[in-house]
Every structure is written in C-alpha cells, then in structure tokens.
Write a structure and sequence with these properties.
alpha/beta; Rossmann fold; five-stranded parallel beta sheet; 15% strand
Length: 332
Amino acid sequence: MRVAIFSTKSYDRQFFEAANREYRHELIFFEPRLTAETAILANGYPVVCAFINDRLDATTLQILAAGGTHSIALRSAGFNHIDLKTAKNLGLTVVRVPAYSPYAVAEHAVALILMLNRKLYRAYNRVREDNFSLEGLLGFDLHGSTVGIVGTGKIGACFARIMHGFGCHLLAYDIHPNPECLELGVEYAELPEVLGKADIVSLHCPLIPATERLINRETLQYFQLGAMLINTSRGGLIDTEAAIKALKSGRLGSLGIDVYEQEENLFFEDLSTSIIQDDTFQLLQSFNNVVITAHQGFFTRNALEEIAKTTLQNITDLERGIPCANEIHSEN
Ligand code: NAD
C-alpha cells in the first residue's frame, strides 16, 4: 500500500526501510509534522502514518479523508492526539502499536530517578571541570524507599519489577489492578494514599479525560515534602504551573520529565540556535532539581524495530481486509 509517513526523522526512515524489506509497502517519507496545513501532502495516499506530536484533529482528518485516505496508522501506543470520534464519523480506520518495548520507557523512568537522586547531571559537569567536591550531591538509598506507581499496565508493571529489584516498597493506583503486580507484592490504594506515602511517584497511565492534569494543585498537596515526581507518560498528566509552585515551595523535591504539556512546539527538533518562546518551559529548565528529556523514553533500537514491524503488519492486515487486532475503536 502507499503510505505517507509524517514527522519523519533519519531513524524512522532507517528502521521502516529495514522492516519493509519483508512487507514491501510503498513508503513515502515526509519530514513535516502532520497538521491541517500539511495534510494536503497526503492527497491520494490510502494510508497515513503519524507520530505522537502530529495533530490529528477534526480539520486534519477531514482533509485526509477528502484526499482519499481511509486508514491512519499511528506509530505509537498513546492515541490522545487523534480525534477518534471524527475519525469514526469519516469512516477512517485507526490502528496503533499498543506494545513495542515497555522496557524502553520503564528503564528511562528509572534512569531519571537515578539521575535526580544521585545528581548525576551535576556530578558529571563538576568532574569535567576538576571540581571533585561532593557538596550538594547527597542522595538516598532506593533500597527501602517507597515508590508510588500510577498506572500499572505494561510499562508500569515493568517499572514495578525493576524497582522491586532495587528493594523498594511498591504502592500503586490503577482503576484495574494488575495481577502480575499483586503477585510481585505491589499494594494498591487510592490515589491520595499512594501520593501521600511515596518517596518517588512515577506516572504510567494514559492521557485520557479522566487523567488530564491528574497531578494538579490539589493532588500535589498529598505529596510528602521533598518527594520526587517522574513522568514518562504524557505531559498533560501534570499541571505544569502547579508543579512549578510545588518545586518552589519544596513540596516537590525533584522532578524528572520525558514529556511536557506543550512539547509539540519543542520536542524532536534542534532549536539550539532559536530563542525558546515558552516561558513556562524556560522556568522549568532553570531549576537545579529538574531533569527534562525530550520524549526519548521509547528511543531504543529494540523499540524502533518493533514499532516499524507492527506498523507495517497493521497496514498489511488493512490491505488484506483481515481484522486488525491493533485497531482502535471509538467509544462514541
Ligand atoms: P497500558 O494500557 O498497558 O497501561 C495503562 C494503565 O493505566 C492500565 O493498567 C490502565 O488500567 C491504567 N489506567 C487507565 N486509566 C487510569 C486512571 N484513570 N487512573 C489510573 N490508572 C489508569 O499502557 P502502557 O503501554 O503501559 O503505556 C502507558 C503510557 O505510557 C501510554 O499511554 C503513553 O502515554 C506512555 N508512553 C510513553 C512513551 C515515551 O516515549 N515516553 C512511550 C510509550 C508510551
């Protein structure tokens, strides 16, 4: 099938071309993000492949459908960036990659924890400048500390297993407790209790209306003074302004994020010669107890291979008219 792949970087091309030796679709790579302004590029393509910061709102979807597109292949697990109701009304089939490597994201969450706890970002720069002082680098043992996990699906469960290995006490909040986590010894509780008892809180639930700004002014009050908050899920789970206030007051002792509410204007691009216009992001960057990575949790060789393979298999299923297990059905 002819597939228009948006938001393409060199690594997307590399992994998709390698996987496509088996599938033999006609892949056309477009660098721009998919928006209402760029959707015209997909004119005549039956399938459009999109990534997380593509904007699949009603206008974009209408332009795609009018241009002959019948399917959207998301190369992501999350699908908060597509208007599923409009897609359904337009008769567009939407497929995704529900699982590619939970390890990649869970391990990145752990990397952020270690980075913040042992202040590796400061230590690295100090030693390079021949400053061997330990002042300000004091951390705490992860062994024996309490970790609160919000969302114990594939990534949350993987994260739980790793933190179990560190000897942490694990608490979790999820609307559907995971038997695998229960077996591991994870204790489920209501959100306020989990937030209130944890030394470290890590978010692994999807961004849906029920979880939008789950961490806000009110819920931040539950946190222990000086607790660490990690978000590798979606930026919209945290009210950034409220988190900044909590960092200023000391309620949050540190913050590690791989995702940011307004990331679509920043992440995945080299803006090092531009002036960043997002004041909130700039303020966040200025804290010495905040570590930000630019949505790289998924970015391992293993994950990119799986994403390309599953996306191309999804497209093959669509081409053959086989029911695709990875189709997303709108509830409306
Ligand atoms: P999953 O569907 O396996 O698990 C999500 C869990 O969240 C489920 O157990 C579900 O019951 C729970 N949940 C749903 N609604 C909830 C609510 N209101 N409160 C608490 N828990 C709730 O998904 P996954 O594969 O583990 O991925 C989790 C999220 O990670 C994705 O939705 C995506 O946003 C994010 N993600 C980030 C990256 C990255 O590169 N940083 C990569 C992949 C996925």
